[in-house]
Amino acid sequence: MVRFAVIGAGMWGKVHVKSIREEGRGRVEWICDAAEPAMKAAQEEFAIPHAATDFREALAAGDVDAVIVAAPPVAHVEIAMAALRAGKHLLVEKPLALTEADAARLVEEAARHPDLVALEGSARFTRIRPKFHFIHDLIASGQLGEVYHIHFQELKRASYVDYNPRAAAWAKSRSSAGGGALFDWAPYDLAFHLGLLDDRPELVSAMTLQKTNLRHDDLNANYEVEQHAAALMKFDTGLTCYYERGGGVHLEASSESRIYGTHGGLRFSYMPWDSYEIERFYEDASLKPAKQTLQVPKTGRFDNENTTLIAHFIDCLEGKLPPATPLPLAFKHLKIALRLLA
After folding, report:
1. Which residue from 242, 181, 240, 174 is spatially nearest to 211, judged by alpha carbons?
2. Which candidate in 122, 137, 245, 264 could, as Cys together with 144 as Cys, close a disulfide (CB 3.0–4.6 Å)?
3. Which CATH architecture has domain 130-301+332-341?
4. What whole-number distance in Å separates Cα of residue 76 and Cα of residue 106?
């Protein structure tokens, strides 16, 4: 039974506590949050044995094997580095850090502890999902030929604090959150789409757009981070990618990915809650344009994507699998996101 300390008693911290219980191979021994009311409320709600406002109390305890960092992004590096130095396995939420320098320090610290598992949370929607493996294998089979362009877009009318109003105090702040719609989702979007090409492409250049203060109600006032962002990226392999994310935008666009190859193309939504159908475009035997709808098999023990993440983390702890999103890989994606926001 893996003994967990969950650092952060907000929305994501509670999600992790619930997922650990559903997964069944772990238990939460500690819940920590700098805000005492949130910490006490979570401890009472989930009957967690120990709680503290200082996460170091949990790290010093002898009843913790692994730490989940679910605090606001500004605190990720400090807590994660302390956990590694205390000899604890680590699952750190995305984004890994707010700056390239801080992320580099964390990656270097993790490298000093090769006996510890260090996983970043973007795997939940990407590298451990059946859609990712199905599409990756389809591309690797050569059916699309050379993949030369990727197009991804998702725009929402709701802002990224509308669904979690309690986070508004920090999620709108650049110093606390690091960024908005793009920075929040780029770890997922890049992990999925670049992973389809085994992360070979290296970013060369990008043309970017950022816009904020698109909503004018009290909850969404004083946004410091981007609500709408777009980029046209060029990579060293010749690949180009159009990438667009927005929340609180005055338009809607469902999540859609398009993969363009010299012998075929794909259209799909990579989100686990969307359709598992993949549209394949190609030339048939008579060289006429053709279209096929493919169905991705739903596999795995759990429907909930975060419980699947916890199961993957525990599988890594048991030596069954390597981490799907190790810290160096998450660092690569973070550097791209930071460049797009520069």
Report:
1. 181
2. 264
3. 2-Layer Sandwich (3.30)
4. 9
Residue 240: helix, strand or coil by DSSP? Answer: strand
Structure confidence at residue 160 (pLDDT): 81
Matching fold, domains 2-116 and 130-301+332-341:
no
Given this model, what pLDDT does residue 165 score? 81
- Token pair for 209: 């757009």
| Tokens 């926001």 sit on residue | 341
Amino acid identity, position 269: S
Domain 2-116 has CATH 3.40.50.720: yes
The helix (H) or strand (E) run that includes residue 112 is none
* The two three-digit tokens of residue 45, written as one number: 């709600």
Which amino acid does the sequence have at 181?
A
* Integer Cα distance of 213 and 172 in angstroms: 10
Q: Measure the CA–CA gap between 77 and 74, rounded to whole angstroms.
A: 7
C-beta of residue 46 within 8 angstroms of C-beta of residue 22: no
Please return the burial class of 229, using the count of CB atoms within 10 Å of its CB with bins 0-12, 13-18 and 19+: buried
Flag residues of the chain having pLDDT under 70.
none
The C-alpha atoms of residue 76 and residue 337 are separated, in whole angstroms, by 17
pLDDT of the residue at 126: 98
pLDDT of residue 87: 99
How is residue 75 written in tokens? 């605190």
Q: Where are the domains of the chain?
A: 2-116, 130-301+332-341
The pLDDT of residue 40 is 98
Give the single-character DSSP code of 326: B
Q: What local confidence, expressed as pLDDT, does residue 325 receive?
A: 99
Name the CA dihedral angle for 116, 55, 24, 188, rounded to a multiple of 10 degrees: -70
How far apart are the C-alpha atoms of 294 and 105, rounded to whole Å?
Answer: 43
Containing H/E element for 320?
A: none
